Amino acid sequence: MIRYSFILLTFCTALIGCAGAQAQERRPIAWDGLGKDPNRPHVAKRRVANPAPGAPDPNQERERVLGTLQPYSQAWWAVHDEIQAENDRRLGTKLVICPRCVESSPPSENVTGSIR
Question: What is the value of pTM for the model shown?
Answer without folding.
Answer: 0.42
